[in-house]
Amino acid sequence: MAKAFKIDMGNQSLDNVGAVLLDEFHERSVEVDLALTLCIEVQQALRADLRLVVMSATLSQTLTDTLRQRMAEAEGPAAVVRSKGRMFPVEVKYAGAPDGGRFGLEKAAARTVKRAMQECQ
């Protein structure tokens, strides 16, 4: 999870915020758990209209159940939305080091893209 969470101490009730989204929640940290706890407290004490969204592509069922229970205690039933993802095969090929000199990287990138396009035809 990106550590870009910033608390505006002058706006503790999050007056100008309609929703708080915590993405990649499976990457647990003290900061993210604290952010969720503080948001739930703001929701309970000051902002019943504040929406909380917790997202993760790989959240375990146990953590999903725990979050659902914790959020339900704060704001009522919490919806769980599931979306089936698809995986596609990926093939990794080494294109070699770029030639030295001016524009070596750009030329190597252009060659590699051209080769990949030819292989896909």
Descriptive tags:
121 residues, mainly alpha, two-stranded parallel ribbon, 2 strands
Short description:
This protein is mainly α and 121 residues long. 40% of the residues lie in helices and 7% in strands. The protein has three helices and two strands, in the order βαβαα.
What does the model show?
The protein has a two-stranded parallel sheet with strand order 1-2. It is elongated. Helices cover about 40% and strands about 5% of the residues. The chain is mostly helical and about 120 residues long. It contains 3 helices and 2 strands; from the N terminus they run βαβαα. The mean pLDDT is about 80.
Structural class by helix and strand composition: mainly alpha
| Unreliable residue stretches | none
Helix count equals: 3
Largest sheet: 2 strands, parallel
Residues in helices, as a percent range = 25-40%
> In what range is the share of β-strand residues?
5-15%
The strand count comes to: 2
* N-end to C-end Cα span: 38 Å
* Mean pLDDT over the residues: 80
* Order of strands in the sheet with most strands: 1-2
* Shape type: elongated
- The radius of gyration is 22 Å
Order of helices and strands: EHEHH
How is the secondary structure organized here?
Elements: E1 19-22, H1 30-45, E2 51-54, H2 61-75, H3 104-120
